[in-house]
C-alpha cells in the first residue's frame, strides 16, 4: 500500500487525504472492536461458566426467581430501526456521490438513530422499574447495563456526529462527490456501531 | 476521531511559507498546542522525564522501607501524606501505595510515553521521509490526554483513603471491594487514569499505523524502513489490539467499585479470575509494547557505531512480527498458580518458551551486527551494548519462570522483580538513554557531553546491577513481593543484608540520574553545536539540519536503498545515506 504520492507537503499541515483518513478510521474502529470484544468476552466467560451453554441441560438464564426478562420483542423491532439507519446513511452517501445534497437521507438517519436511543432509554427505565439495575441480578444486571451502556454511548456519539455532518452540509454544502471524508468516516463509524449491536443483541437478548 | 481530525487542521493551517523561515508563533502555539510531530515528541519527552522522577522517588521510598524497615525517612518523611507515612516512617498500607504508584507510573507514564510518545513521534515521520504525522491534531490530542491521565493518577494520593495499593496488576477482589482495599476512591481514579491513558495510546497508535502505511517517501518500501520504524509499527498494532481490553477491564472494575456491579464478585456470579485473564491478555502484549521499540532503537545505534549493516535485517523484522503475534497467546504464564487446568498451563509454558526463540534471534543478530565492526564506544553505543547484555539476563530468567513447576516456586517472589527490572530497566530504560544520547543532537542541535555521559553510563550500569541482581537471590531465598517489612518473617531475617545492598544500589541509581540531568542542562546551555550528521548515519533525519525546521524536508526525499549500508565494499566513505544513489561499483546489502 505504499502510495508515495500521498506524502503531503506538511508545511501548511493540510488535512490528510480522504483515503488516509479512512485508513485511520479503520484502525480506530479495530481498537473499538477490541473494547467490545473485551466486554462481551468477559460476559461470555462469566455466563457460560455459571450456567453452561444454552443447549446444555439445566441451562437457565437469568438465574434465580423473579429476575425480570429482557424485552426481546421490543428490542428486535428497535434493531430494525438501527439496521435501517445504516442503509439510509448509505443512501445519503450515494446521493452525495451523485452531487445531490443527501440532506433528506441524513435527516432520516438521525431520526432512526434517535428512535433507537429513545427506545433503549425506555428499556433501561422499564427494567430499572422492574428491579433490574447495575447492582441487582448479579452478573446478569451488571453485564446488561455496562455493555448496553457502552454501546448506547457509541450510538449517541454517532447521532451527534451525523447531526454535525447534517449541519455542515446544510450550511456550507461542503460534501462533494470528490471530497467528503468526514461523511465517509462517520458512515464507517455508524456501520461499525450497527454491527457491534448485532453481537450485543445476539449474546445478551437471544441466547 | 479521525473524522474530525481529517477536517480540523485545515481550518487552522498557516499560509504556506518557506521551510527554514520559522515565522513567529506565540509560546502557546509553539510549545503547548502544536501540530508539529517533533515538538509533540519533545512534549512527551519532557513530561515523561518528569514522571521518571516521580516514579524514581516512589521507588526510593519502597527501597528505603525494605532496607531499613520502619526507620524514619530523613528530611522529606514528615512531608508525606498521612496515608503513606506516620511520623516520617512508612506504614504498611502506605508501602503498598508506593509500590502500586511506582509501577503504574513507570509503565504507563514513563516507559510507554518515552519509547512510543517521544521517539515514536519524533522519528517516524523523519525516518520515512514524511512532513508530519497523518493526523497532527489527533497527535496533539493524544499528548494532552496523556497529561490529563497523569494528573488523575497523581491526584489519587490526595483523595480520602489515599492512593490505590493493590499493585499495578490490581487483582480482584482486593481491588474490586472497597472494604478490602480501603482506598475505593484512589482505586477508581486509577481506573479512570488508565482508561484515559488508553485513549491517548490508541490515538497515537492509530496515527502511527496510518502514517507508516500511507506516508512513506518515494522509494521507501516497507523493507527499506529502519528498524525503529518497524518496531514502532508492530508496537502500534499491539497497542490497538491490547489496550482496549485493559480499558474494558478498568471500566468493569470501576463499575464494581462504584455502581455495585458484580463482574469480579462471586456473590453475584462474577469471578475474580476474570480480572486476571483480562488484565494479562493486555498485560503480556504490554510488556512487548515496552520492549519492541527499545529493540528497534538499539538496533539502529548498534549498526551506526559498528559501521556495519544490521546482521539479518529481515530476520529482525520477522522476529518482531513473531514476537508480536506470540505475545497474544502467552498471557497464562502470569497465572500458573491461579489453579488453572494443568494442560492449559503446559500449553502456556510451551508458547512462552517459543516466544524466547525470536527474542534469541534478535540477540544473535545484534551480536552478528557488532561482530568485527569498527566499534565506536560513544555513550549511546555503551548504553546500547548494555541493553543487549541486560536483556539477555532478563530473558534467561524469563525462561526459568516459563516452566510451570519452577514458577510455582518463584511466582510472586523477588525473582520476578529481578526479571522484569532486567528487561524493563536494563532493557527499555537503557535503550531510552542510548536513544537520548544518540538523537539529542538532532533534537536540540547540541551535542551531549561525552565525558559526563560515560560517568552517567558507568554509574547507571553498576548501580543498576547492584540494585537488581541480588533480587534474584532474595527471590530464590523466599522473599515475597509486596511485603512492607521482610524482617517480620523468620526465614527472611538472614537475607536482610541483601536488602540493604539493594537499597544502597537504588540510592546510587537515583544519584546517577543527576549526572544525566546535569549533562542535559549544561549541554543545552553551552554544548558543542551539532552538525547535520554527527554520527555519519544513513537514515533520513540526518540529511536535514539539526534541529530540523518546520515541515522537515525542504523537498520530499527519494529513497534508493535500505538504511544500513555501512562500510559498503567498493565505496570510499563508510556510509551511504538513504537518499543518495549508490555510486558505480558499490556492492549494497539491501535492494
Ligand atoms: C524471553 C522472553 C521472556 C519470557 C520467557 C518471560 C517470562 C515471564 C514469566 C513466565 C513471567 C511470570 C512470572 C510470575 O509471575 O510467576 C514474567 C513476568 C514478567 N515479565 Fe517477562 N518474560 C520475557 C520477557 C519480558 C520482557 C521483554 C518484559 C518487558 C519489557 C517482561 C516483563 C515482565 C513483567 C513486568 C513481569 C511481571 C508482571 C507482574 O507480575 O507484575 N518480560 N515474564
Ligand atoms: Cu508475560
* The CATH C-level class name of chain B: Mainly Alpha
Instruction: Round the Cα radius of gyration of chain B to an integer and report it.
Output: 24 Å
**Tally of DSSP β-strands of chain A:** 0
Secondary-structure class of chain A: mainly alpha
Question: How would you portray this structure in words?
Answer:
Chain A has 207 residues and is mostly helical. Chain A has a single domain, classed as Four Helix Bundle (Hemerythrin (Met), subunit A) (Up-down Bundle), CATH 1.20.120.80. Chain A has helices spanning 18-51, 72-97, 103-130, 138-172, 181-206. Chain A is elongated and about 60 Å long. Chain A starts with 17 loop residues before the first helix and ends with a helix. Chain B is mainly alpha-helical and 591 residues long. Chain B has one domain (2-6, 46-543): Cytochrome c oxidase-like, subunit I domain (Cytochrome C Oxidase, Chain A, Up-down Bundle), CATH 1.20.210. Chain B is 62% helix and 1% strand. Chain B contains 18 helices and 2 strands. Chain B has helices at 2-5, 8-12, 27-32, 37-67, 92-128, 136-155, 178-181, 184-214, 227-258, 272-289, 292-306, 313-326, 342-370, 379-402, 404-410, 414-444, 450-476, 496-526, and strands spanning 85-86, 89-90. Chain B has a two-stranded antiparallel sheet with strand order 1-2. In chain B, a hairpin with a 2-residue loop joins β1 (85-86) and β2 (89-90). In chain B, α17 (450-476) packs antiparallel against α18. The longest helix of chain B has 37 residues, at 92-128. Chain B starts with a helix and ends in a 65-residue tail after the last helix. The model of chain B is unreliable at 1-22 (pLDDT under 50). Classes of the chains: A mainly alpha (207), B mainly alpha (591). At the A-B interface, α1, α4 and α5 of A face α1, α2, α8, α9 and α10 of B.
Amino acid at each position: 500500500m505504499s502510495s508515495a504520492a500521498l506524502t503531503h507537503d506538511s508545511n501548511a499541515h493540510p488535512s490528510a487525504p480522504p483515503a488516509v483518513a479512512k485508513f485511520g478510521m479503520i484502525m480506530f474502529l479495530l481498537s473499538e472492536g477490541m473494547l467490545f470484544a473485551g466486554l462481551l468476552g468477559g460476559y461470555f466467560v462469566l455466563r457460560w461458566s455459571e450456567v453452561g451453554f444454552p443447549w446444555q441441560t439445566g441451562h437457565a438464564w437469568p438465574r434465580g426467581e423473579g429476575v425480570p426478562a429482557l424485552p426481546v420483542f421490543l428490542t428486535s423491532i428497535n434493531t430494525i430501526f438501527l439496521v435501517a439507519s445504516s442503509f439510509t446513511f448509505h443512501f445519503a452517501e450515494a446521493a452525495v456521490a451523485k452531487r445531490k445534497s443527501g440532506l433528506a437521507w441524513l435527516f432520516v438517519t438521525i431520526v432512526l438513530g434517535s428512535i433507537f436511543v429513545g427506545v433503549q432509554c425506555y428499556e433501561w427505565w422499564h427494567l430499572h422499574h422492574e428491579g433490574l439495575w447495575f447492582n441487582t441480578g448479579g452478573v446478569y444486571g451488571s453485564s446488561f447495563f455496562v455493555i448496553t451502556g457502552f454501546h448506547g454511548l457509541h450510538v449517541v456519539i454517532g447521532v451527534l456526529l451525523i447531526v454535525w455532518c447534517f449541519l455542515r452540509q446544510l450550511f456550507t454544502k461542503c460534501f462533494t462527490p470528490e471530497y467528503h471524508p468526514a461523511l465517509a468516516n462517520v458512515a464507517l463509524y455508524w456501520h461499525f456501531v450497527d454491527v457491534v449491536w448485532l453481537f450485543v443483541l445476539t449474546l445478551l437478548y437471544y441466547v | 476521531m479521525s473524522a474530525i481530525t481529517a477536517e480540523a487542521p485545515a481550518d487552522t493551517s498557516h499560509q504556506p511559507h518557506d521551510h527554514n523561515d520559522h515565522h513567529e508563533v506565540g509560546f502557546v502555539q509553539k510549545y503547548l498546542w502544536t501540530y508539529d510531530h517533533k515538538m509533540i515528541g519533545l512534549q512527551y519527552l519532557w513530561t515523561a522525564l518528569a514522571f521518571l522522577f516521580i516514579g524514581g522517588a516512589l521507588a526510593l521510598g519502597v527501597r528505603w522501607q525494605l532496607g531499613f524497615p520502619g526507620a524514619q525517612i530523613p528530611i522529606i518523611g514528615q512531608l508525606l501524606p498521612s496515608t503513606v507515612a506516620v511520623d516520617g516512617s512508612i506504614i504498611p498500607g502506605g508501602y503498598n501505595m508506593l509500590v502500586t504508584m511506582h509501577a503504574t507510573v513507570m509503565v504507563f507514564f514513563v516507559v510507554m510515553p518515552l519509547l512510543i510518545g517521544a521517539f515514536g513521534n519524533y522519528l517516524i515521520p523523519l525516518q520515512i521521509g514524511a512532513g508530519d504525522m497523518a493526523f497532527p491534531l489527533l497527535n496533539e490530542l493524544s499528548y494532552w490526554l496523556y497529561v490529563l491521565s497523569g494528573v488523575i493518577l497523581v491526584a489519587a494520593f490526595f483523595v480520602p483513603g489515599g492512593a490505590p495499593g493493590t499493585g499495578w496488576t490490581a487483582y480482584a477482589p482486593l481491588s474490586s471491594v472497597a472494604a478490602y482495599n480501603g482506598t475505593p476512591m484512589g482505586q477508581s481514579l486509577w481506573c479512570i487514569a488508565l482508561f484515559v491513558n488508553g485513549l491517548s495510546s490508541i490515538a497515537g497508535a492509530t496515527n502511527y499505523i496510518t502514517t507508516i502505511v500511507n506516508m512513506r517517501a518515494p522509494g521507501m518500501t516497507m523493507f527499506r524502513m529502519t528498524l525503529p520504524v518497524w518496531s514502532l509499527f508492530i508496537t502500534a498494532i499491539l497497542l490497538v489490539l491490547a489496550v482496549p481490553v485493559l480499558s474494558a477491564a478498568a471500566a468493569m472494575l470501576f463499575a464494581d467499585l462504584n455502581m455495585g456491579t458484580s463482574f469480579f464478585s462471586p456473590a453475584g456470579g462474577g469471578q475474580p479470575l476474570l480480572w486476571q485473564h483480562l488484565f494479562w491478555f493486555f498485560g503480556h502484549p504490554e510488556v512487548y509494547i515496552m520492549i519492541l521499540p527499545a529493540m528497534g532503537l538499539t538496533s539502529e545505534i548498534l549498526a551506526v557505531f559498528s559501521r556495519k549493516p544490521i546482521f539479518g535485517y529481515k530476520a529482525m523484522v520477522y522476529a518482531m512480527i513473531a514476537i508480536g503475534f506470540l505475545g497474544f497467546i502467552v498471557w497464562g504464564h502470569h497465572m500458573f498458580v491461579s489453579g488453572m487446568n494443568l494442560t492449559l498451563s503446559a500449553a502456556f509454558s510451551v508458547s512462552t518458551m517459543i516466544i524466547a526463540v525470536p527474542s534469541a534471534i534478535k540477540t544473535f543478530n545484534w551480536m552478528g551486527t557488532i561482530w568485527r565492526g569498527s566499534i565506536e564506544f560513544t555513550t549511546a553505543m555503551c548504553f546500547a551494548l548494555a541493553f543487549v547484555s541486560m536483556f539477555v539476563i532478563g530473558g534467561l530468567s524469563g525462561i526459568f519462570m516459563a516452566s510451570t513447576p519452577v514458577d510455582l516456586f518463584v511466582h510472586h517472589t523477588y525473582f520476578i522483580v529481578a526479571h522484569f527490572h532486567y528487561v524493563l530497566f536494563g532493557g527499555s530504560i537503557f535503550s531510552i538513554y542510548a536513544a537520548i544520547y544518540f538523537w539529542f543532537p538532532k533534537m536540540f542541535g547540541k551535542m551531549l557531553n561525552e565525558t559526563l555521559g560515560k560517568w552517567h553510563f558507568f554509574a547507571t550500569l553498576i548501580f543498576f546491577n547492584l540494585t537488581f541482581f541480588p533480587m534474584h537471590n532474595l527471590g530464590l531465598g523466599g522473599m515475597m513481593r509486596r511485603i512492607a517489612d521482610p524482617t517480620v518473617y523468620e526465614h527472611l531475617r538472614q537475607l536482610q543484608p541483601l536488602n540493604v545492598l539493594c537499597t544502597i544500589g537504588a540510592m546510587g541509581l537515583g544519584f546517577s540520574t543527576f549526572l544525566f540531568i546535569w549533562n542535559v542542562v549544561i549541554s543545552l546551555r553551552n554544548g558543542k553545536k551539532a552538525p547535520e550528521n554527527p554520527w555519519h548515519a544513513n537514515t533520513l533525519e540526518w540529511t536535514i539540519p539539526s534541529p530540523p525546521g518546520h515541515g522537515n524536508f525542504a523537498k520530499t526525499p527519494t529513497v534508493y536503498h535500505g538504511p544500513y549500508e555501512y562500510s559498503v565494499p567498493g565505496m570510499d566513505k563508510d556510509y551511504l545515506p538513504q537518499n543518495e544513489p549508490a555510486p558505480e561499483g558499490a556492492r549494497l546489502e539491501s535492494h
